[in-house]
Design a protein that fits this description.
This protein is mainly beta. It has one domain. The chain is built from 2 helices and 11 strands, in the order ββαβββββαββββ. The strands form 3 sheets. The protein has a 5-stranded antiparallel β-sheet, with no helix packed on it. A 4-stranded antiparallel β-sheet has the order 5-4-10-9, with no helix packed on it. The N and C termini lie far apart (64 Å). The N terminus is likely disordered.
Length: 164
């Protein structure tokens, strides 16, 4: 039996949408065509100064052994612990973030000028889940480390500046 070949490779793209509820994780696939996409710009280009006036690069890193949600609004940043251990060595935009129950001081400097509901993850490093969910007032960042033991995580979020 001869298998027909395709003249061009066909790829089906899907995006995983992650929702954390307590310690339970549910996933669903959504066709990429149904999602809003931002133009891809490399972080190197942004740091070189080509578009830094239009975007805020927000970097967050931590040692994780569990899960959490971090909510971002103009009024503040709120950490919500979900399961297992509290994160350690949390760095928020270059500064240590401690205590986690208070908004990092640097957030107040630029939150009013950011178009938070248009944020997206530009780069992620870690062994498990990092997902960003847009909300009417900003966005929520979900981090989950299910494998045994702690591991380092880092995420770079690109947030457009409000055009005035």
């Amino acid at each position: 039996m001869k298998v027909p070949s395709l003249a061009k490779p066909v790829a089906v793209a899907v995006m995983m949408v992650i929702a954390l509820a307590g310690s339970a994780v549910s996933c669903k696939t959504v066709p990429v065509a149904a999602q809003r996409h931002e133009p891809m710009v490399s972080i190197t280009q942004l740091e070189a100064g080509t578009r830094t006036t239009n975007m805020k690069l927000l970097r967050i890193s931590a040692l994780l052994d569990g899960s959490c949600r971090i909510s971002f609004t103009r009024q503040g940043v709120r950490y919500e612990h979900k399961s297992w251990a509290q994160p350690k060595n949390v760095i928020f935009d270059g500064d240590p973030w401690s205590p986690l129950d208070q908004t990092p001081p640097v957030w107040e400097k630029y939150a009013a000028n950011l178009d938070l509901p248009r944020a997206y993850i530009a780069e992620r490093k870690g062994r498990d889940v990092m997902a960003l969910e847009l909300t009417p007032d900003g966005f929520d960042l979900y981090l989950a480390d299910a494998p045994n033991g702690a591991a380092p995580y880092s995420v770079t979020i690109m947030i457009p500046m409000i055009r005035r």
